Amino acid sequence: MYSTSQLASHFAVNAQTVKRYAEEFRDYLSPTATPEGGNTRRFTEDDVKVYDLIVRMKQDGKRFEQIHAALASGERGELPDFEIGSLTAAQSSAQLRLLKRVAELQTEVERLRGVDARLEEVREQLAEAKAEIKSLNREIGRLEAKHDE
What is the pLDDT along the chain (149 residues), one digit of tens a residue? Predict the structure, then answer.
């Protein structure tokens, strides 16, 4: 049996979504998934297969009516490996923070590449300016020598 938090964590949805789906699709779930009188929800393996289908179809943009039709025709999802695939809420949160940080660092790398390219342009302009100054200094020297004659 699985808890609401285990399903929420595994399917990357919040507990409220798990509860909302339990109410919406109660006809396809076990009595323990939709208990009476405020009892704790417990989900069977068959319930998890129902949730797998619901979540996949929602991710594909399907409406509740389409999901009801699929479930009514006997369609079910797969039983995921909770031991390998599930993350605790803390792990999920940490993973999200890391993914956000990776995105920030990728943005910074792109910005620095732009700065590096601009720096290279400035270096080339500086080298050209130095060569021009050297040429002008030679011309000044030549003109001064000619003037002194």
Answer: 888 888 888 888 888 999 999 999 999 999 999 888 778 889 999 999 999 999 999 999 999 999 999 999 999 988 877 654 455 556 667 777 888 898 899 999 999 999 999 999 999 999 999 999 999 999 999 999 898 87
> Is-contact 22 29, C-beta < 8 A?
yes
Residue whose C-alpha is closest to residue 18's, from 28, 30, 32, 33: 33
> Would you say 137 and 144 are in contact if contact means Cβ atoms under 8 Å apart?
no
Its domain, for residue 131, covers 88-149
On whether both 94 and 79 belong to a single domain, the answer is no
In order of 6, 9, 11, 76, 144, the CA distances from 31 in angstroms are: 18, 22, 21, 18, 104
